[in-house]
């Protein structure tokens, strides 16, 4: 059976793998939503070494870093190697009104979850309006007596 050889197709495949790995290394997919009085951030970090996950806040910048180490089996012939390795990093600029000193983080099943509470001063609150039944007007004269 004859097969058609296209040297550019193989080059295109190899270059595609190389650039796809670079893009995948740089990407850190996430979901962010608000639930009541806190925000929840889910970040996909499949295969990341749990000990390498680092979350820190400096000023209004939240930085997430993690690393996936390459597998180092001896005497193997790779047939496909598409999973990116190296350091993942993502920075988010967060707005005011968050309690950044009370962020909690968990890592399970390849997903890093950050819970970020809304600061007390940023929570909506009801302002009670005072009212009085017998308010006196300034400058009003007493009724004349007869």
From TrEMBL:
Pfam families, per the entry: HSP20
Matches recorded under Gene3D superfamilies: 2.60.40.790
Domain SHSP: 21-132
PROSITE patterns according to UniProt: SHSP
InterPro entries, sorted: A-crystallin/Hsp20_dom (IPR002068), HSP20-like_chaperone (IPR008978), Small_HSP (IPR031107)
PANTHER family: HEAT-SHOCK PROTEIN 20 FAMILY MEMBER
Similarity comment: Belongs to the small heat shock protein (HSP20) family.
Protein's recorded name: HSP20 family protein
Organism: Cellulomonas marina
Source taxonomy: Bacteria, Bacillati, Actinomycetota, Actinomycetes, Micrococcales
